[in-house]
């Protein structure tokens, strides 16, 4: 590889060297041209200096000529003055002299005028030439400086290129020496490679034999034990348990805990806001303690009084959502079933806001129409009017987006995975919008409270209520701001963590597959825990046989148990009837006892009381007396009834006193009632015991039937799986046969390449031998 790379490096270096050489020639030409231009400019500068000197000399001569002319003019003026003084003596001579002087004067004036104009023109030309010279000199100097800087830069580039060329030449020489050394080493490596190729051919043969044997073993194992590959299908892959990401679950639970605390703060703030708003409606603009408020405000306060029914479920829904996120679960939108309940609670609160919104707006309008409302207070009320509409609209948006997030756990086709990110960003935007609206509401409420304090009829109750409303609005604003910042800060985590799923797949197919996956996860966790438990002591063989006999007898006596259940049910029904019968008898006995007590107290004589008592309490005693009087008069007579047994005698002795008989009858009935109640309690306990046994047996029967049905279903599924596995086994066999054929083709191609390499090696050997012979001959 190194030998193959070296010619490419040489070619690149040669190309770079040729390019740099061409650039060096171009730069040299540019430097020469610039030097020629600078020399030409210097010559032009010299010529301009010479012309400037000539013009200065001409200017000096012109100034000298002007001075001479000025002196001549002065002399002429003096002569003119002398001639005028002489002309007074002689008029004729004066006239002639005046004519001459005027002619001379006119000639002088014309000459003087010409000289002045020529002097002025020369001054102008001199000034223009001087300015042009200065301008040209400045331009030439700037151009000279630029050319000098360019020349210095070009010289620096040339120096750097020369240094670079020398460095590259040295590097190339060093590389050449290294390449010669490498060529020698490569020759030695080529010899080693020849030896290695022979070894590789031998290893290839051994590997072919080993691979053939391993292939047969792998085919046997696949045909016997390997199931189908479920990662090829997304439907089956969604049922696989993903790798447990404990850090992700703990992070999500922490975020859910923070969100729960923020929602709790928001719920308390909403409760306080609605409650204090209800109090204010009751006291302003009309105090309900002194006068009746309007029906609109009455209805509004009635609705506000029900705010806890709609606000409290928000906290409960968030709490259930927090409890559903544990360390052992897999939390994505498809498994977040509790999010649907939270969205429903939010929908109920939104319905509450929609219900109270028209009453709140009408209440503000009614407050504006009152006589206590000023213009500034009316403006604040209208601002709150607009803010309440905006707040309800923002809550509607928030509910819409949260209901969209709850769709993957119920209807996955309602929201595509590609739209999750946009929904989360929309929720963050809605939370920020609600925070801004609550800021406006807080500012407007504070302004309104300050204006209401200036009303002359303001009460302390109204001031305290306004303060409470302001504090609740401030806490509501702070809570919403915390939620908005929390959601915005963790938006990347929410959107990035949704790709959590089984290995080889990026998503769950449906909520049903996610639920099945969670069930499989629980089963896997239980299985791993059962593996970690220590093995229980084994049951002895004799005890296991006895238990098996008991189990078989219990299964055989199933019909007998069913018959026992029916008999116990019949007994329970009979006992219930007897219980009702004895309860009625006890009530009748109590009634009869009360009647006897009244009769005994109201009786006038003991005889009448005794006869009445015998007739009312023991109606059958007289019949038994008449039957037994024929046999013996002193034999005891027994009277039986539903309430018990009473034994009396029919001798001619005197009857006991009324009080003693009353006490005896009371004691007898009290004992009989106690005995009957004990029997009733015993019957109740037995009936309860039988009822419990019957319920247990019924449950066992239902469980047995359910287990039978489940076993039948599992049997069907097992038969279906067996048939499916057989089909897949056939397909896998075919695929592996195809792979084997491909591997054999690949081995053949490898053999061909090896033969080609051998031929090349042989040719190289021949060429090397020929070269060596030629070198020897030389």
TrEMBL record:
Localization: Early endosome
SMART domains: KLRAQ (SM01254)
Protein phosphatase 1 regulatory subunit 21 N-terminal domain: residues covered: 11-112
Domain of life: Eukaryota
Positions of the UniProt region annotated as Disordered: 85-104, 618-638
InterPro entries: PPP1R21, PPP1R21_C, PPP1R21_N, PPP1R21_six_helix
Keywords carried by this UniProt record: Coiled coil, Endosome, RNA-binding
Positions with biased composition (Low complexity): 95-104
Pfam families documented for this protein: KLRAQ (PF10205), PPP1R21_C (PF21636), PPP1R21_helical (PF10212)
GO cellular component: early endosome; membrane
Gene Ontology molecular function, alphabetical: RNA binding
Basic and acidic residues bias spans: 623-637
Signal sequence residues: none
Stretches of the chain forming a coiled coil according to its record: 144-210, 558-610, 694-735
Name of the protein in question: Protein phosphatase 1 regulatory subunit 21
Provenance organism: Anser cygnoides
